[in-house]
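User: Structure please.
Assistant: Input sequence and predicted structure:
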Amino acid sequence: MFKKILIANRGEIALRIMRTCKLMGINTVAIYSEADKDSPHVKKADQAFLVGGARVNESYLNIDKIIEIAKETGSEAVHPGYGLLSENPVFAKKCEEAGITFIGPSPEVISRMGSKIESRKAMEEVGVPVVPGITYPLSNADEAVKIASSMGYPVMLKASAGGGGIGMQIAHDSEELQKAFAGNQKRATDFFGDGAMYVEKYIENPRHVEIQIFADKSGNTIYLWERECSIQRRHQKVVEEAPSVILDEETRSKMGAAAIKAAKSIGYSNAGTIEFLVDSNKNFYFLEMNTRLQVEHPVTEEITGIDLVEQQIRIAADEVLKYTQSDIKRDGHSIEVRIYAEDPKTFFPSPGKITKLSLPKGSEVRHELAIEEQSVVTPFYDPMIGKLIVKGKNREEAIIHLKNALSEYEIEGIKTNIPMLREVISHQAFKDGDTTTNFVSKYLQNK
């Protein structure tokens, strides 16, 4: 087992990884930017090193500097967390070349699944259902219109390298598609360095349901049930729960089998998530694969009792999975909400100093936090400052725990999305399980 791991990330996920490392007797090395010098993850690490300026390209995306620190500190492995360099094949490759273990899949698999067009093609080849659409890049807006006309509107225009809702837009007719093409292609080029675009049929009122998988280097592959992540704003998840409200056991089993088939077909190892859209008839379609730990992994940990970060580290250290599929039990219901430093109506970021922080307590409540009282939320990074996770014997009990916890959650000095989260959890449609991806626009923004 590794003696020292460098965590190439910041905020709550850096702290979350450190917690498991400590339990496993592994020393940790943190990196931090000038803006994060007083952050909790810097204080909690065994060692911490300044990696650059406040902007991510000066610090958390500085691959050569991070590898230099890993080598100088004798770190045997790097955990990338999520976001930042977690799905960067160049980083994974450079770690490999430096003799440092990248805790994740191979650079080749990251590269292949990082392209939405290539990943759609890979899934089609092995018979995993994908949303009807194309598996090659569009040459221009006219070609997009021609293809969309043959499949029927509405369609979803997407960037092959996209993520976080960037470079994607629904089009209801040819005029809308023509207008959307150039702008989204430019955004994709600016953000991802890749302007490849494609179209697929837009699934009306879908659920976003994802399957957590684990695979070791010997090819043993299991799934750890599903998470439903349909409550989103600006195509980004804000409420996640496990198990899904909509799935019956038959569909759950089919989706798990499809996820395992997908992972095995590409030679996957470590933690991964296969994301699906599920329509009202419980048909499911491959959306994309995330080749890393997910933000919402705690709800899976809560219902399975398995530490996902520990399993990632053990697989990276060449251990064989100690679980078979029949070992993976499901207990109770868990819900996570993401706490963002943002205006609860406009969703615009709200940086500033946290002057008061009072957290709900209880055995049914779990916190994953990036901040503490007097922390300064800077404008340089994603505004997520924490996650609140609850567990109940069933969904009804979990909702009660979450409602109580949100009512006791106090943050002063900045705006947060907590009022919006309280509104979601209290809404009758949420209690009834009417949690499609248009929940926020349908019930909160259009009222």
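The two ends are 55 Å apart (CA to CA).
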